[in-house]
Each structure stands twice: as structure tokens, then as C-alpha cells.
Amino acid sequence: MPGENYWLRRKIDDTYQMFQKAELQADEISKLYLEGSRRISFQIQGLFEKFRDKNGLSDAEAKRLLSMMHDPTDIKEAIRLLGEDPDNEAALDLKQKLESAAFQNRIYRLQVSQNQLDGLIKGLFGEEIKRTTAAYANIANEAYYREIYNIQQRAGAFSFSHLSKKTVDRILQHDWSGAHYSKRVWANTQELGRQLKQEMLLGTLAGKTEKEMADTISERFSVGSMKARRIVRTESAYVFNEMNARADMAAGFDRYRYVATLDLKTSEICRNMDGKEFLYSQKRVGVNYPPLHPWCRSTTMYAWDADILAKMTRRARDPKTGRVVKVPMNMTYHEWMKDKPGETESKQ
Predict the structure, then answer these.
(1) Which of helix, strand or coil describes residue 313?
(2) What is the side-by-side order of every strand in the sheet holding 299-302?
(3) Which end of the chain is more exposed for a tag (fewer CB within 10 A), N or C?
(4) Residue 157 class from Cβ within 10 Å (0-12 exposed, 13-18 middle, 19+ buried)?
(5) 3-class DSSP state for residue 325?
(6) For position 346, what pLDDT does the model report?
(7) How far apart are CA 20 and CA 29, in angstroms?
């Protein structure tokens, strides 16, 4: 029969596989953001160009104007404010140009593009929620039954409750981090839309080229995509670890041991938690149960007796050679770091 080290490796491998699946899902979400970037860049073709007569505002002047506005995406408010400083010749010239008949079509197209952006952002939010919710439900089911299977392989068959859709939905609706993931996705997409509309108005006032605006749009979508990836990774970790806890408790375990990753990327909070044991009845996600922070890679294992634990090992990555080595299972992160003075720590 496989030894205890085998079951620990199985747990670590299961955790790794979950993160791999989360990354693949995040890749799919990133494609949505990339497509959004391309669509907006296509929609603004012909809308931006450098003012040949140099009567646009500088970037600094345009940003200062936007900072004065109640709505930094409203072109009409911008035009009104441009005329409130009679001593600013550049502002007055730009106001006159924006109000000219020749420029009104461009103003109209700017407003149309901003409205189209609202629709794109709404669609992006809906698609992201649909895809990630389905992915989290799959993680929940797979994590629960895989953990049950592993325990039964080690300890023998036992009766357990099957996982209902109602239970999975309740877990996915839990706002364990203070805000449900749908609210965090909504906040991310809404902020992205606001920034993009503001950048489009800024580009109009400063007379930026289509290339400059396309680069700005791409950069903004890249930031939004990275935030979306962080949400997917962190929420996947929550669902995976939560279902493992439920499976362990179904098997009769009442304690768990916190298991952090032994490498230099591990966060300070997870380093301090590594090796500590808690009762499942006192489990608090984000406090003594992973994830403790965004991008958290820690997991847990149902607690063994001390004599069994002393015979076990786990894997660690040597910071000097990059090779994976084995260390005692009951060695904590800080004990592992004791013989590595002067190492540069890159915390995540």
C-alpha cells in the first residue's frame, strides 16, 4: 500500500493541476479582452489624428482639464470648460475648432464610439461571468470527489454525502473575500470602460494619432486582463480548498495542516502559516485557511499524528540550483529558510 508521502504528493499534484486549469481558463478570458481591444481599435479608425496646426492641448493640459470635470468622459462638458479661461489661447482655439461644423462629425463619432464601448464592456462582463462560473463549478465537483477518492484509497470506503448543485451554488455565492467574485469582475470591467472613455476624450483634446490611441487601448485592456486573471486564480484556489475541506470533514477528519509552497515566491503571510494546524471547526478562509491573499498558492492537508508526520517528506525548490529536493514534512517554511542566509526573496 502506498506510504504517506505518496498521498501528500497526490494532494500537491491535485493542487498543481487545479492551478493549471485555472490558468487555461484565465487564458480564455484574456482572449475576450484581446478581442475587445481589437474591436475598439477598429471602431476608432479615422477618429484621431494629430492637429496639424498645433492648436490642441498638451497631454498635461488635457489631463488637468479632465481632472476639473464632473464627468471626465463628457465631450460637451470639456468644450464648455475650454471657454471658461479667456487667457488660455490654446484652450479657446481648441474650443472653437471642436464647435466648428467641420469637426462636429468627429465629435458625434466619438460619442458613438463611447456608447459602443458601453455595450462591449457589458458583453465582456456577461461572458466572463458565464465562463468563470461554469469553470468554478467544475473545479468544485472535481476537487470534492477526487479528495473523497484519495481518502478512500488510503483509508478504505466510508459513507459520504454526494455533492448537490445547490451546495455548489451556495459555495460559489459566498463572498468569502468581502466581495463576491461577480462584483469584483463588474468593478474591473466598469473601471476599464471608464478609463477607456476617458482616454478617448483625452486623445481628442490632445490631438493624438490612431496609433497612439490603439496602443493606449491595448495597454488598458492588458491591465484589465491581468486583473481578471488574478480573480480567476484566486477564486479557483478558494473553491478547490473549500471542497477539499468539505471532503475531509465528510471522511471524519477534524484538523488540517497548512501547507505553503517552499520557494522564494511564497508570501510572508503564508510562510508564517506553513506547518500550523487548526480545527476545521475554526477554519476561516483568508485568515487561517487558503487563499490568504490574491495569487495564493497554498493548500492544506488533513492532519496526521506526529509520529506519522515525522516520517514524511515534501518537495521544495532549492533557490540556488533551482532543483526540486525533499525535506521533512514537519519542517516549516522558516526552518527551511534558516540555512539560506542572504537569499533575495521575491514574495507573491
Answers:
(1) strand
(2) 277-279, 255-259, 299-302
(3) N
(4) exposed
(5) strand
(6) 44
(7) 14
Output the DSSP codes for 253-302: --EEEEE---STTS-HHHHHHTT-EEEGGG--BTTTBS--STT---EEEE
The three three-digit cell numbers of residue 261, written as one number: 509552497
Here the cell at position 37 is 481591444
Distance of CA 248 to the CA centre of its chain: 28
With residue 326 as reference, give the H or E element that holds it. strand 324-328
Q: State the cell numbers at 81.
A: 470648460
186: amino acid identity, one letter: W
pLDDT, tens only, 116-175: 999 999 999 999 999 999 999 999 999 999 998 888 877 677 778 889 999 999 999 999
**Residue 164 DSSP one-character state:** P
Q: Which helix (H) or strand (E) holds 316?
A: strand 313-317
Residue ranges of alpha helices (H) inside the chain are: 4-43, 59-68, 75-82, 89-99, 101-155, 165-173, 181-206, 210-250, 268-273, 306-309, 333-337
Helix axes 89-99, 75-82, angle to 10 degrees: 130
pLDDT under 70: residue ranges of the chain:
1-4, 50-55, 155, 304-316, 319, 327-337, 339-348
Please give the C-alpha separations between residue 28 and each of 196, 230, 288, in angstroms, as whole numbers: 22, 13, 31
Distance CA 94, CA 54 (A): 10
Residue 167, C-beta contacts closer than 8 angstroms, at least 6 positions apart: none
Q: pTM (2 decimals)?
A: 0.84
Of all helices (H) and strands (E), which one includes residue 327?
strand 324-328
